[in-house]
Amino acid sequence: MHRLTLRVIVLFICMVCIGSAATYPDVVVLNGTADAETAPGFPLAVDVSFMNNGTRDAGIITVSAWLSLDEEFSDGALFLFAYQFSPLSRGQKRSVQMIDVIPPSVAPGTYYLFVECEGKVPGEENPDDNRSLISQIVVHDWDIPSEEEFCTEIAAWIFLLTNEQRAEHRLSELEWDEELYSLADEHAIEMARYRYMDHVNKAGLDATGRAKARGLETRKEVVVDGRVGVRDGIAENLAFTGTGHVRGSGYINPAVPRAVATAFISGWMKSLGHRQNILEPTITHLGVSVRKGGKYYYAAQNFR
Question: How many other C-beta atoms are found inside a 10 Å radius of the C-beta of residue 281?
Answer without folding.
Answer: 13
